[in-house]
Design brief:
Function: DNA-dependent RNA polymerase catalyzes the transcription of DNA into RNA using the four ribonucleoside triphosphates as substrates.
Subcellular location: Nucleus
Family: Belongs to the archaeal rpoM/eukaryotic RPA12/RPB9/RPC11 RNA polymerase family.
Keywords: DNA-directed RNA polymerase, Metal-binding, Nucleus, Signal, Transcription, Zinc, Zinc-finger
Structural class: mainly beta
Radius of gyration: 28 Å
CATH class of the largest domain: Mainly Beta
Largest sheet: 4 strands, antiparallel
Order of helices and strands: EEEEEEE
Oligomer: single chain
Main location: nucleus
Shape: elongated
Length: about 110
Amino acid sequence: MWFCPICANLLMVDGTTGGTTSSFICSTCPYKNSIASKRRNRIKLKSKKLDDVLGGAGAWENVDKTSAVCPQCAHGEAFFMQIQIRSADEPMSVFYKCEKCSHQWCHR
C-alpha cells in the first residue's frame, strides 16, 4: 500500500494510461507519480509488550490454597483466584497456579 505524501490518503493505480507504464494517483489531491518499475517494501512492525491479564506475579501473593490436581505434574494442591472475565450473567472464572511447578490453568 502506498500513501500520498501530500494528504496521506491511500494512492490508487491509474488504469487509464494507454502505455505499459501506470501511475499512482491520489483521489483527493492532484498528486500523481508514474510507476517506472515494480515496487516492494516491507516494514517490520515492532511487537508490543503484552501485559499479564491476571496482574502479573503480584496477583498471586495473597491468594488462597485449595486441593486441585495440576494437569502438568499431578500435584494435589494449588493456589486459586476467581475473576469475572465475561458478562455479569456468566459465572466467574477460576484460575489455578500449581504450588509445586507453578503451572497455571483455568476452570470456567
